[in-house]
Design brief:
Layout (H helix, E strand, L loop, with lengths): L2 E6 L5 E8 L2 E6 L2 E10 L5 E7 L2 H14 L4 E6 L3 H9 L3 E12 L2 H4 L10 E4 L6 H17 L25 E6 L2 E9 L6 E7 L8 H15 L4 E7 L3 H9 L3 E11 L1
Parallel strand pairs: 11-12
Antiparallel strand pairs: 1-2, 2-3, 3-4, 4-5, 6-13, 7-12, 7-13, 8-9, 9-10, 10-11
Protein name: GNAT family N-acetyltransferase
InterPro entries: Acyl_CoA_acyltransferase, GNAT_dom
Pfam families: Acetyltransf_1
Length: 265
């Protein structure tokens, strides 16, 4: 695919925006790349786009090209403190749809208060990398269906990563699991990033809510990090999710950043 959109830069040189592939656009001025746009479809089917351009006019031209080539709705993510980026997306017709808080989560038991937390009766925690893949994938599908039937999976944090069609659980080794008797009832996913591990998801089956399972999963996960010498982790929470916000704040997590999800319909 090689569709081109031409315009002029502030320096009056021609800027040509070319759709280099199904999911990438390149802006070239005088044989030099001056910006690019990328699209990625999340597991829930939503199409997210991002644009990297030094000048606002080039951003606008790439946005125009992508909007002409792609179906709506389209989504984008910006740092809530980056007012220039937000303004650029708003010029392209995007508006805020949801806000996500970034939390720095301590791991020390004396700070979190989780040192004495034990799983509920009949529940055991299966450490990351030890869960059976088949039952783990089944739990993932059940939780996703339950979330979609309630608040919608779009309210849950999700990395913009290319994934095979129908695949949501990419790396089972990143998941610790809560097991009640002979079935999996809750999970926590941690990306073991070098500087600060990222808690990407913590979820419990609807029929096992309000038993302290999520808290027990956090106690296990943060305790393991602390013993490994990690002082804090990172987590994102949708601001409309009062229960998740209360859970993290109750263990000493502090909001340190925020992200805006924008949409153009």
């Amino acid at each position: 695919m090689n569709l081109a959109h031409s315009t002029s830069s502030p320096h009056h040189h021609a800027v040509v925006v070319t759709r280099a592939s199904d999911m990438q656009w390149l802006a070239v001025e005088d044989d030099r790349e001056v910006g690019r746009g990328d699209a990625s479809r999340r597991p829930d089917g939503r199409l997210f786009i991002s644009i990297d351009a030094w000048h606002g006019t080039v951003f606008d031209r790439i946005a125009d090209a992508m909007l002409a080539d792609l179906p709506t709705p389209l989504y984008a993510v910006v740092d809530e403190a980056d007012h220039d980026s937000r303004s650029a997306w708003e010029r392209a017709g995007f508006a805020a749809a949801r806000r996500e808080g970034g939390y720095r989560v301590p791991t020390a038991p004396e700070v979190t208060g989780l040192g004495s937390v034990q799983p509920p009766s009949g529940v055991t925690i299966v450490p990351a990398g030890k869960a059976e893949e088949g039952p783990l994938r089944a739990l993932d599908r059940i939780i996703r269906d339950e979330v979609e039937a309630a608040v919608g999976w779009q309210t849950m944090p999700a990395e913009v990563l290319p994934r095979p069609a129908g695949t949501t659980l990419v790396d089972p080794s990143k998941y610790a699991v809560a097991r009640h008797l002979d079935r999996y009832v809750g999970l926590v996913r941690v990306a073991p990033l070098p500087r600060q591990p990222r808690i990407g998801l913590i979820a419990v089956r609807a029929d096992s809510h309000r038993r302290g399972i999520a808290r027990a999963l956090l106690a296990h996960t943060l305790g393991s990090m602390h013993r490994a010498g990690t002082a804090s982790a990172w987590a994102e929470v949708d601001e409309s999710n009062a229960a998740a916000t209360a859970l993290f704040e109750s263990i000493g997590a502090r909001r340190a950043a925020g992200t805006l999800e924008l949409v153009r319909r």
